[in-house]
Specification:
The complex is a heterodimer of chains A (about 425) and B (about 350).
Chain A: H1 8-22, E1 37-40, E2 48-51, H2 56-66, E3 70-74, E4 76-78, E5 90-93, E6 95-100, H3 109-112, E7 113-117, E8 123-125, E9 139-143, H4 147-166, E10 176-180, E11 185-190, H5 200-211, H6 237-252, H7 255-260, H8 265-273, H9 275-284, H10 288-294, H11 299-314, H12 323-327, E12 332-334, E13 348-350, H13 360-363, E14 371-379, E15 382-384, E16 387-389, E17 392-400, H14 401-409, E18 413-415
Helix pairs in contact in A: 1-2, 6-9, 6-11
Chain B: H1 3-8, H2 13-22, H3 35-51, H4 61-78, H5 81-100, H6 104-115, E1 119-126, E2 129-136, H7 137-143, E3 159-160, E4 163-166, H8 168-187, H9 197-213, H10 233-244, H11 250-262, H12 267-277, H13 282-292, H14 307-312, H15 329-340, H16 349-354
Antiparallel strand pairs in B: 1-2, 2-4, 3-4
Helix pairs in contact in B: 3-4, 3-5, 3-9, 5-8, 6-8, 10-11, 12-13
The chains are: A alpha+beta (about 425), B alpha+beta (about 350).
Chain lengths: ~425, ~350
């Protein structure tokens, strides 16, 4: 790739200018002396790690002096944050969740993501396949984003917040911090003494809860011999959520898909022909009635079928979090209110109650300025502020500074002198 | 506290105080006066080995009470981590049976005073079961840590506003979990002192029972040769992925590498395996493998992740019936290897001892 795509020097100057006048407004994370910090610069690929600050002014000075391309801090607390990993003295960690549209399978990715096989030169749109036709798995990828991905990421974040608040009882004001990542997603931090010392296995159990990994129908009332009178649709927690998921799945899945699930004959037939009855039963009765009335007597088969249905159905209700980030107790995570070198946007803290109205494409675009002339190699369509830009391909354009920075940070353009 | 209660629940702080007040020293135990205590202590450990549960013998409650710390000491000194776990569980199961017969008040007392639980009364019904307790989720996650049945997974519980609903017998079971951890921690400390002769004899007795039953209770070592046919499905999945060139996650490569190291594949063969099928840099690959093997960096030899962890990260694939009975890929390997290669039994050291 031509090395000047992205006009790094120009971008670095803009970051530096911004940090010089704005670093003073960036708050350091709480318990600054117990955190490790890490930064990337525009010049090199090495991460500067194991950095510690004694106070906020030293922290701000660092940002002003270095204007990093990417800034991180540890979600963990350490006795000696500047020491090597083994000697840091771990003393707890926030519980963090990462939601990244990059992990989703979205139609819009075909419009703005591309891949190229380094081995045979084959290329395509969207996500690369597991293996290229040439048998190798060596891809170069170019991932952009759009309003749709960001909205999907926001929806997942909202679902996560609902679970954290309703089920786990975290306080929306005191315990939860929501950050727009500055690129394709959101981070949620739980800061509470109740979770600070959780080990990996407790964090893993929370991940499984959020994703409903390992959920079994018999524990939410779907058993042939179950007792109980009331419907689970109004229940709290996963009972209600899974109940609703089943209801929606049965309601909205077309017969050909139901048939393709390879469930028992009686159940398949009833799911198609007696759909309304089943839905009514779910609404008014305990789920065991559904089994008694609409499934065969082969208990083992029925339970396996229900599990299959449930696994398909809950995808709508679970929040799509990254399993590795949450279970890692030594995680470095993006530092709020700093700039993201892959977009030129700001990582921003959002009040959870304002999440639904938050528009990253307006709020996080903090660098302002007049038109810049660029040559654009390729860029998909993107709305920034109130204006839609692109798509561009092999052309010279004049765009406002924030748009130019975005195209440059994505390495899709270079500045024309 | 009544001595009888202390004998039932010797792990309680109050019970320990009672024992401490008697100020019995190690050498005192050699005195015939304490032979009953020493015998009962030995019996506690052998019951744990043979039955997996320690019986409660409350008729002679002083012997019962005093034999607990002595039994713990015997296990500590024996220095076999498998026995640590087996003994801790066996004592904890004994507690569970006792707790099942207790009233609500006793459960609350132990849970709150001993383990600092945020436990409250509740009154809810689901699926015809009545839930009379609720426990704060962080306490729940701690105490259920070693439970692997589906019903204990948090996602299969009713969790409301931070509290997990529980039935009375479930509270007892969770206390069992706490007791197990407590005892395990206690016995895994390895003390160094010279034992008086009568205690040494008891330790030999325990060693004999343990060695005779090593295989039966699943404490045998891993096979010495690498048996590829005995790989669990998750590891096969990782291996096939590697061989086909599929992009593998960090967790996938870690699971595979740590597994291969732990079953005794030489580092060199693992390096070859990676380098032959990928375009990984050889020296970097070697460094990473040696790091996992504990030869580099912080010198910790890593074991593969638990089945539960592999499931969370989407690596648990194609489960078979052996998977239903194990919690760790290495246990799968041990079991499957035994099925494939039962001949090995004749050559194992534990059987030689019998001859």
């Amino acid at each position: 790739m031509d090395s000047d795509w992205g006009s790094q020097k120009f971008v670095a100057e803009q970051f530096s200018k911004w940090y010089r006048s704005n670093a003073r407004y960036i708050s350091a994370p709480p318990e600054i002396m117990s955190r490790e910090f890490a930064f990337l610069t525009f010049e090199g690929k090495t991460m500067f790690r194991h950095i510690g600050f004694t106070d906020e002014s030293a922290f701000r000075r660092y940002l002003t002096d270095n204007a990093p391309s990417h800034s991180y801090y540890s979600s963990s607390y350490y006795k000696h944050p500047e020491a090597e990993m083994n000697n840091k003295g771990w003393s707890g960690a926030d519980l963090v969740f990462d939601i990244d549209a990059d992990h989703f399978n979205l139609e819009c990715q075909k419009n703005h993501d591309k891949w190229l096989c380094r081995n045979c030169g084959k290329s395509g749109v969207g996500k690369p396949p597991e293996l290229c036709v040439c048998g190798k798995s060596q891809f170069e990828t170019e991932t952009w984003l759009c309003e749709n991905c960001l909205q999907e990421a926001k929806n997942e974040t909202q679902k996560l917040l609902d679970i954290l608040i309703q089920d786990f009882g975290f306080a929306i004001k005191e315990d939860l911090i929501v950050n727009f990542s500055g690129n394709r997603g959101y981070h949620v931090h739980v800061r509470s003494k109740n979770v600070r010392f959780f080990d990996q296995s407790a964090r893993r159990e929370i991940v499984d809860y959020i994703l409903a990994t390992g959920i079994k129908p018999e524990y939410i009332g779907f058993t042939p011999r179950g007792r109980g009178a009331k419907s689970i649709l109004g229940d709290e927690g996963w009972r209600g959520r899974a109940g609703k998921a089943m209801y929606d799945f049965i309601d909205s899945t077309p017969p050909e898909i139901i048939r393709s699930l390879d469930l028992g004959r009686t159940l398949t037939q009833n799911l198609i022909e007696k759909k309304t009855d089943i839905l009514k039963t779910l609404e008014n009765n305990h789920p065991s009635f559904v089994i008694q009335k609409f499934a065969s007597k082969d208990e083992e088969r029925v339970m396996a079928d229900l599990e299959k249905l449930l696994t398909k159905a809950i995808k709508q209700q679970s929040a799509d979090i990254d399993t590795v980030v949450t279970t890692d107790i030594h995680r470095l995570i993006r530092l709020p209110n700093t700039l993201h070198g892959k977009s030129g946007w700001q990582t921003q803290t959002i009040k959870p109650e304002h999440l639904s109205d938050y528009d990253p494409l307006t709020s996080a675009v903090v660098l302002k300025g007049t038109d810049i002339r660029l040559f654009v190699r390729w860029a998909p369509k993107i709305r920034i502020g109130d204006t839609v830009y692109g798509p561009y391909e092999g052309e010279e354009v004049s765009v406002p500074l924030p748009v130019a920075l975005f195209l440059l940070c994505k390495k899709g353009a270079k500045v024309v002198n | 506290m009544l001595e009888r209660d202390a004998a039932k629940y010797p792990f309680l702080k109050e019970a320990a105080k009672l024992v401490d007040a008697l100020n019995i020293q190690l050498n005192d135990l050699a005195d015939p006066v304490y032979s009953k205590v020493l015998n009962r202590a030995t019996e506690r450990v052998t019951e744990a080995i043979l039955e997996g549960v320690v019986e409660s013998k409350l008729d002679d409650y002083m012997t019962e009470l005093l034999s607990y710390p002595v039994a713990s000491m015997l296990v500590s000194v024996k220095g076999e981590s498998f026995l640590d776990r087996r003994y801790a569980l066996a004592e904890a199961v004994r507690i569970y049976f006792l707790l099942m017969k207790e009233d609500t008040k006793t459960l609350f007392e132990i849970a709150i005073n001993e383990f600092n639980w945020d436990l409250k009364e509740a009154k809810e019904n689901f699926d015809g079961q009545s839930y009379t307790f609720k426990l704060f989720f962080s306490n729940y996650l701690h105490s259920s840590n070693s439970f692997h049945e589906d019903k204990w997974k948090l996602v299969n519980r009713v969790l409301k506003n931070g509290y997990v609903l529980l039935q009375q017998n479930e509270v007892a079971r969770l206390i069992q979990g706490e007791v197990e951890m407590l005892i395990k921690e206690r016995v895994s400390i390895r003390p160094k002192f010279d034992l008086p002769e009568p205690i040494k004899q008891k330790l030999d007795e325990i060693t004999k029972v343990f060695e005779e039953n090593r295989r039966k209770i699943g404490a045998e070592d891993l096979p010495t040769e690498v048996i590829r046919e005995a790989f669990p499905p998750c590891i096969r999945y990782c291996m096939e992925g590697l061989l086909s060139g599929r992009r593998a996650s960090h967790m996938e490569r870690f699971a595979l590498t740590s597994f291969l190291i732990n079953i005794g594949m030489p580092t060199e063969s693992i390096v070859d395996l990676y380098v032959s099928v990928t375009d990984f840099d050889e020296s970097l690959t070697r460094y990473q493998i040696e790091h996992i093997a504990g030869l580099k960096g912080n010198k910790t030899r890593y074991t593969p992740p638990l089945c539960d962890t592999l499931r969370t990260h989407g690596i648990c694939r194609n489960k078979d019936n052996i998977c239903e009975r194990i919690k760790h890929p290495l246990s799968y390997y041990r079991r499957k290897a035994r099925l494939i290669n039962p001949v090995q039994e004749k050559n194992s050291p534990s059987n030689n001892n019998q001859g």
